[in-house]
């Protein structure tokens, strides 16, 4: 077999292994190792390349961002900041039509800005927001759809673990990716809030729900709300403000954020020696998983480069004179299809190593491509047949004794308007790249 044929076979094998249920990092390492050995005809060389690639990938300075932001996320959850962000948002927006749903989006956006973990947000807001919306008479499809859909914000609004993986694969700056995500994140949040306003307008009873919130809005004083929101604002200013102002790098921002979240958790007496140790262990587990994925992704990228598959694809596109727009549309379609059956990380690891060199040859900014990728991949987590976000909503509802009232199919239907809104935002960024490249 030629190197190109081995590359194609490896790509197909990787897809099949991931679909069959094999762990992502194991699939990547196996396919890459065997593929490199077959191309070079030397198993020892493949082993040495595996070790060197893994070392190069995890010893980069910017990789320190991952464990620091993971630690910050666990500290934020321990301190109850996510709950507070929702309560404050509910008091601000709950009195409007569909306001509790809009508060869920705002709370999710704030929570994402200090954690960057979608799954944690889905579980937390399912438990907090869904019962509250159902109690207010919201249609159950809207209630669960808001939570499942707004989970997309977790991987777009920095800090985002998925952005770190993309940056490592494409050798772009993590700091640039984080900076680029802020404006699209705001636009996507506004699009979700507008979607809720439109959907809520089709259902009677939304005005009564808003009036009930207005009657209860005096339960918390302005002082109490300020005390709740102050730690959130402090963390956002410290982490994102300091990074965007150029006071420190993305890695240093992670350290500042982790330290700030720890101090807030201590000040709120939310940490005990036992819980602190458990947070450190959980951070280690998550970081180890990310290390394996990044190291194996780096090796897979090198395997594809050796096989010549990305170069062949670039030459084929150049020969047929396909435009950047046409290639982007094909790329978006592929990512959407993969995202309906795979998790976000798997989709990134399959699609990006193949297309990133093509976009680079076409003169596209890989940061712009990255933002489009983040949103498109996240659309996949809420679409059938295997979008993970509705599954998490369903399992959380089942655990809380509410699952029998809301079937999985209704969660998917409720999330579809948010998928459509996200694709509209993708179209805007494709048509006008300055929305993602505003800082350049």
Give the helix/strand layout.
Layout: H1 3-20, H2 24-40, H3 43-58, H4 65-79, H5 81-93, H6 99-113, H7 118-135, H8 140-150, H9 161-170, H10 174-201, H11 206-216, H12 222-244, H13 250-267, H14 273-307, H15 309-319, H16 324-339, H17 344-361, H18 366-380, H19 388-399, H20 408-431
Structural descriptors:
440 residues; mainly alpha; 20 helices
Short structural description:
This protein is mostly helical and 440 residues long. Helices cover 78% and strands 0% of the residues.
Explain the overall architecture.
The protein is 78% helix and 0% strand. It has 440 residues and is mainly α. It contains 20 helices and no strands. Helix 10 packs across helix 20. The longest helix is centred in the middle third of the chain and has 35 residues.
Query: Helix tally?
Result: 20
Helical content band: over 70%
For the termini, the CA-CA separation is 45 Å
Outline the biggest β-sheet. Answer: none
What fraction of residues sit in β-strands?
under 5%
Strand element count:
0
Give me the strand/helix succession: HHHHHHHHHHHHHHHHHHHH
Overall outline: globular
Helix-strand makeup class: mainly alpha
Radius of gyration: 22 Å
Oligomer: single chain
**Which stretches of 5+ consecutive residues score pLDDT under 50?**
none
Compute the average pLDDT.
Answer: 78
């Amino acid at each position: 077999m030629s190197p190109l044929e081995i590359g194609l076979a490896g790509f197909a094998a990787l897809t099949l292994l991931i679909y069959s249920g094999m762990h992502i990092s194991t699939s990547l390492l196996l396919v890459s190792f065997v593929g490199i050995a077959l191309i070079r005809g030397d198993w020892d060389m493949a082993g040495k390349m595996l070790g060197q690639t893994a070392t190069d990938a995890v010893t980069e300075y910017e990789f320190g961002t991952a464990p620091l932001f993971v630690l910050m996320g666990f500290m934020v959850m321990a301190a109850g900041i996510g709950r507070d962000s929702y309560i404050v948002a509910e008091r601000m927006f709950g009195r409007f039509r569909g306001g509790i749903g809009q508060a869920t989006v705002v709370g999710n956006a704030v929570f994402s800005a200090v954690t960057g973990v979608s799954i944690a947000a889905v579980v937390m807001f399912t438990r907090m927001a869904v019962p509250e919306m159902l109690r207010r008479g919201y249609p159950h499809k809207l209630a669960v759809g808001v939570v499942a859909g707004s989970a997309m914000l977790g991987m777009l609004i920095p800090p985002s673990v998925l952005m770190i993986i993309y940056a490592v694969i494409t050798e772009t700056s993590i700091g640039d990716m984080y900076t680029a995500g802020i404006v699209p994140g705001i636009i996507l949040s506004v699009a979700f809030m507008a979607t809720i306003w439109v959907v809520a307008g089709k259902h009677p009873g939304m005005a009564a729900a808003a009036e009930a919130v207005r009657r209860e809005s005096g339960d918390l004083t302005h002082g109490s709300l300020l005390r709740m929101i102050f730690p959130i604002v402090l963390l956002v200013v410290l982490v994102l403000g300091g990074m965007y102002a150029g006071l420190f790098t993305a890695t240093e921002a992670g350290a500042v954020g982790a330290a700030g979240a720890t101090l807030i958790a201590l000040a709120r007496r939310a940490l005990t020696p036992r819980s602190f140790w458990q947070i450190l262990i959980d951070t280690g587990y998550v970081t180890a998983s990310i290390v394996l994925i990044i190291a194996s992704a780096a090796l897979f990228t090198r395997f594809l480069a050796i096989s010549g598959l990305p170069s062949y694809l670039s030459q084929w596109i150049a020969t047929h004179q396909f435009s950047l727009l046409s290639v982007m549309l094909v790329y978006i379609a592929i990512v959407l299809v993969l995202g309906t059956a795979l998790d976000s990380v798997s989709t990134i690891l399959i699609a990006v190593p193949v297309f990133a060199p093509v976009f680079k040859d076409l003169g596209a900014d890989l940061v712009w491509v990255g933002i489009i990728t983040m949103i498109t991949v996240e659309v996949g987590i809420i679409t059938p047949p295997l979008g993970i976000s509705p599954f998490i909503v369903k399992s959380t509802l089942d655990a809380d004794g509410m699952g029998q009232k809301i079937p999985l199919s209704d969660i998917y239907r409720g999330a579809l308007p948010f998928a459509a809104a996200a694709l509209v935002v993708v179209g805007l960024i494709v048509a006008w790249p300055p929305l993602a490249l505003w800082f350049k």
